[in-house]
Amino acid sequence: MLLRRVLSFIKGGFRSLLYRFFFFFLVVALLIQCINLITYRVNLWYFETELEHSYNNSLTNIATNLNNIFTGIYNSNYLLSLDADAMQLFSSNFNVDSLDKYAMVSQTVRSLSRIRQMSDYVDSVYIFKKNSDLIISDNGTYSTKDFFGRKNVLELYSESYWRNYGAQSRTFQILPPSRSLSQNGAYILPIVQTAIAEYRSNDLYVINLKVDRIIELLQSYKLTPNSQLFIIDDNELVMASTEMDVPQEEFYYFTKHFQTRDIPVLRTTVGQQDMLAIQISTHFIFKNLNMIALVPYSDIHESMKQIKYWGILFSLIAFVLSIFLSFLFSKKLYAPLHSLIVKISPSPQPATDEYKWLDLEIHRIMENMHTLSDSLTTISPIAFEQWILQLLRFNRIPNERDMNVFFEKCGITFTHNGFAAALIRIKFTKDFHMDYTTSEQNIIHSKIANLLKSTIPTEDQSYMVEIESNVFCLIVNLPQDAELQGFTTYFDHLFNLLRHNGNLYDLFVGVGNIHEGFDGLQQSYLDAMKALWRLSPFDNKRIHYYQKEDEESVTILLNHNDDRKIFNLLASVKREELLEMLKMVIHSHVAVGLNDFSIKELHMHLFVIGSQVLKHKDKTLPEATYREYIRIILSEHSISVDSMTEFILGYFNKIMDTIELQEDKLESLTFKPFIDANYQEDLHLEFLADKFHTSANYMSRLLKNELGKPFHQYLQEVRIQKAKELLAGSNMTIQHIWASVGFNNRNSFIRTFKKIEGIAPSVYRLQYTSNEVSESSGVTLQ
Fold it and tell me: Which tens digit of pLDDT belongs to each residue from 629-641?
């Protein structure tokens, strides 16, 4: 009976928060005895977590340092590849068998020495020429027997190992470390390469690293006295560790097998010691390595002694205080909550179960706040401004339903169906860029932008968006029969506001016609751009309203039939036919005498045709293409027909590349290796176009993009370079040389050689002949 009453009291009491506070403090007081153990365990776990996090950072830093070291070594290939002598010397077919080649050896020694000095981790650098039994190192040249028998004696890698090396498929490989018998047992980490940059060879290019420096790096990242750090590769080989000089087999065995598990942290026993094992796998450009740290738990517990002592003491104090506070603060904590319940309760008497009722009310308030937050996000003006920008940039107009949903979320309703656009351009003078710093220029630009957006016409529904840097677009919703001349008052007011700084910037305005719907808004935007072209800083006119007569020059040069032909050829990816059509439309009419306005109008009209093809194919181009178009079209400088035509051709090619249904596009191919390997053949654009199944014009563009220069110029330079090598390093006659490098006749060879080198081939050869005579008496290997 008594138990039933107690249970009934507890059940009824828990409906009130006052009793809940009391029981809460009472339970805390009763359970406080467990806090000592819990606190210690939590602190131990926290310390382990922090130690694990710290070691993760340490191992990451080690990996970063090693990556920087190995990346620097890998990049040294490109530094060495810039040395023509070293690259020729690295060739398997090149033998040092004459005095005139010793200078190349000396130059290579200097290059290797520079690579050696790039990092304190590098011990030595050398090239092993197998056929010549010659070692060319950063410290001079050696015979193979002397070098591997005295200078570079590694315990694991004998001379026969290096001589047989080369069958591996990888051109860049890090070998396991080995003791150096020639350096008092110091560890050396060889990095072997059978290629420098893109040049492969049967000879070896080797960089020896000092493992002792890597060990010092590991020692510097130890966080506890007895912890151990290891670097293990994918083959379970130890590359470096803090214990290399005093190896312990059980630790080495554990680390080699720990890395094969997909476990970053492991608590285990190694060598009868409880250990915390942490590993991080790293991926370098040429090798995967595992960074492993082993931390004894004895170190962790030693660090926790003080925490354990203070934990017990604070637990006892908290136990006493919790009993006292359970009686003292119950009513004080309940008082503000009771006041809150009374204020938000819809009825004079709150619900009996205060906790449940308060929980429901808090959830209701939170849901209302989320709804409010979502509403504020969807009606953000930035979203609408971005929508306008995308619309103006010739993207496909969304369907009516999507637009209605978007406008409803933004709280926007357009009263009229007509739209007009005006482009406002701020042109800063030379004094502005010279007298103001970048930060001051940004402040002035921001003030002008805010001024433009704050002074938009209020008579009609208007919006101001920034199209590009210093170019703003005013969009006005108004009836189609409205008079655009009414905006003159607004623009006059704008000129007056900005006139006091006329020595810093000037204002130009182009106004487009009123058109129906959002398609019409795009058309009005184009009208405004054309109107803006007709304003020049060299006359007094600062505003121009677009007139239909402005397009007469375009309609003369590009009629409706031409429009359809270009559209169909572009949509069908007919590159050659399209090129011929553009030549007919553009270059055949140059004689008419096109001015700058007509040139820009004509090419912008072609740009619009390309945009229509993208819409038809439901494709898009990167944002950078549009920005480049705006930069060229709005340029103040005169633009030639050829320059604009080149831009339009590039634009059309990007469109055709986007819509072309060809899985293995030619852009994914590289032609330079083919040209370098076949330079002596009768190479020409038609041959390459036929080989790769494309047109000669398209092949010319691809080659220029890859080579950075016209194909014919690059081919001549390659042939002349090969001819120079033969003139300097062989006894072949000039007639045999020009024939062997791909020239058709002697005169063409001599003329091209003089054009590139400035001297005749015979004079070039004479220089090297003279050097042989003067140096034949005193050249020795270093």
Answer: 666 666 656 667 7
